[in-house]
Amino acid sequence: MYSAQNSNTFLAYFNQIDKYLSKILWLKKYVPYHERVTMITTGKTSISRFVRMFEDKLRYFGDLRNQLVHGFRLENKHYLIVSNHALDEIQSIHDDLTQPQSIASLAQQPAIAQQSDLLQPTLQLMSDAGLRYIPVYDSEQLIGVLWFQDIMHWLVSQDTIDTPTQTVWDVDVTHYAEYRTISSHTSVYEVQEMFEQDTAVEVLLVTADSSPDSATDSAIQGMVTIYDLPGLLWDI
C-alpha cells in the first residue's frame, strides 16, 4: 500500500533536482524544466553525460511533478499516488546527480616505473597488478605512459633478449600511450565523456588538480584506462 507521504517526498527530491539543473546552467531567469533538460543534454556541462543517460526518466519525473502539483483533485485530495518504485528511482537519480561519485574513489592505484628500472621486474609488477599501462618517470618528471602490449611487441622484435640487464629506458616503442591528467574531483560521468570525446586518449592520470605539472610520482592518486570504464560504470 502506498503512502501519501511518498508524493511529498517525491516533490522534495524533484525540487532539489530542479534547482540543481538551474545551478549548473547558471541561469539568471526562469527557464521551464524540460527546456533546461534539453540545454544540458545538448551542452557540455559536468552533468551532461549523466542527464543524457537518464533523460527519459528525468522528463517523466517532470510530468509527474506537474500532475501532482497542478493535476486534478477531488475534495482537495490527490488521486495520483507516487509508488515506492518511483520514489526509489528519483532518490537514486537525485543522489547520483547532486553528489556524483568522484573518479578518485574508483580509479585503480597506480604503479610507476623509473626509466632506470630493470625491465623484467617492471613487467612482473604490471602482470601481478593486472596493469595494462604504467607511467614512466625520469626522477619526478613524467616521460610518458607505456602500454604492456607495446613492451611485448618490442621484446619480440629483438634479435636477442637480455632481460636481466634491460631497463625500461631500453624499450624502443613507436609511441607512448596518449594520456591526460584529471582532477581527483572529476566525476565518473565526466570521465566517460572525456574518453568518448577524444578517442585517442588511452589513459587518464588522476591528480590533485588537472595541471600536467601535477603529475609527479607522488602526486598521482590513481589511473583510469579505457578498458576500466565498463567496470567503473557498473560499480556506481
What labels would you give this structure?
single chain, 236 residues, alpha/beta, CBS-domain, 2 domains, 3-stranded mixed beta sheet, 9 helices, 44% helix, 14% strand, elongated
Write the layout of secondary structure elements.
Layout (H helix, E strand, L loop, with lengths): L4 H21 L7 H9 L6 H6 L1 H16 L2 E2 L2 E2 L5 H15 L14 E2 L4 H11 L3 E6 L2 E7 H10 L21 E5 L4 H10 L5 E5 L14 E4 L3 H7 L1
Parallel strand pairs: 3-4, 6-7
Antiparallel strand pairs: 1-2, 4-5, 7-8
Helix/strand class = alpha/beta
Number of strands: 8
Please tell me the total number of domains.
2
Return the CATH architecture of the largest domain.
Answer: Roll
Q: Summarize the amount of helix as a percent range.
A: 40-55%
Biggest sheet architecture? 3 strands, mixed
CATH class of the largest domain: Alpha Beta
Residue stretches low in confidence (pLDDT < 50, at least 5 long) are none
Describe the structure.
The protein is an alpha/beta fold and 236 residues long. The chain has two domains: 5-98, no CATH class; 105-235, CBS-domain (Roll), CATH 3.10.580.10. Helix content is 44%, strand content 14%. The protein has helices spanning 5-25, 33-41, 48-53, 55-70, 84-98, 119-129, 148-157, 188-197, 229-235; strands at 73-74, 77-78, 113-114, 133-138, 141-147, 179-183, 203-207, 222-225. The strands form three sheets. Strands 3-4-5 form a three-stranded mixed beta sheet.
